[in-house]
Amino acid sequence: MQRAVSVVAHLGFRLQAFSPDLYRPLSFAQDVLRRTPLYDFHLVHGGKMVEFAGWSLPVQYRDSHTDSHLHTRQHCSLFDVSHMLQTKICGSDRVKLMESLVVGDIAELRPNQGTLSLFTNEAGGILDDLIVTNTSQGHLYVVSNAGCWEKDLALMQDKVRELQNQGRDVGLEVLDNALLALQGPTAAQVLQAGVADDLRKLPFMTSAVMEVFGVSGCRVTRCGYTGEDGVEISVPAAGAVHLATALLENPEVKLAGLAARDSLRLEAGLCLYGTDIDEHTTPVEGSLSWTLGTVTSGCPSPSLKKNVAMGYVPCEYSRPGTKLMVEVRRKQQMAVVSKMPFVPTNYYTLK
């Protein structure tokens, strides 16, 4: 059996956009790519658009990838993550449906509390990772990955039909909201200026519906994919540009794209589905029970100024401090097994 580990490699190579296989130039199929409600907004602000999971998204803006990364760690950045699948599960049997598909105790979630969970197959392999929130409005709010959109939606729809045929009370709705992530140590301070709710009462992995900078009906969830404090805002599509524009008026906020998001999540020890975990990975193997010989993700860390990676090694080589040899561009390099996250997380919790 193999176990997921993190390694720090003491070698140097030029900083560049990460996971290049994930991003493709738009020229190959821009006519068939999906666009978020902020597509034109990205172009106006100098977004370099690439293909990602069937969507046209900014990989970076006018600032360099490294500058965007470090700005997020020191201030806050705004990411467009509207490509994520947002669904609403309704009906009195909504919890029964979700618990039949995921690992996790959904029934024990408090009102407006969320949890990271996993869709798994019959062999225990990970079909996708997702966040499930038990809203106080009587439905489950689910956010899952764009790369698994069709698979996840079919999985949930099939289970809905199965339970409905049994006379169960359950339904599913796909939301067409935009999804904006404001991430960084000053994110709450920036957002507080545009909401009436006291964000000090909104700890990590909880959410609330509120008006945000004049846009009503926004669900604000204290979570993110960077390891920093921050929120994800599910906003009606018609209000997305207004909200993004209002947030950018604060000099603390800069736009950031896929490249910074990738390196930030790697520093925070957060897995990327399809790269670090997939249907052949179990939650235990992926250290998601709470997920190298094979390297799955790697990049130069702008924060640490060292190269970092995640991957799998046999258990006997997984102890922190163990020295390994890794292959980088067909050259053997020394590496050391390290604890994750590489950079300490700064999630906001109630004291």
From TrEMBL:
Xref: InterPro entries: GcvT, GcvT/YgfZ/DmdA, GcvT/YgfZ_C, GCVT_N, TrmE/GcvT-like
Cellular component aspect of the GO annotation: glycine cleavage complex; mitochondrion
A GO molecular-function descriptor: aminomethyltransferase activity
Residues annotated as domain GCVT N-terminal: 38-292
Keywords: Aminotransferase, Mitochondrion, Transferase, Transit peptide
Record's signal peptide: none
Name of this chain's protein: Aminomethyltransferase
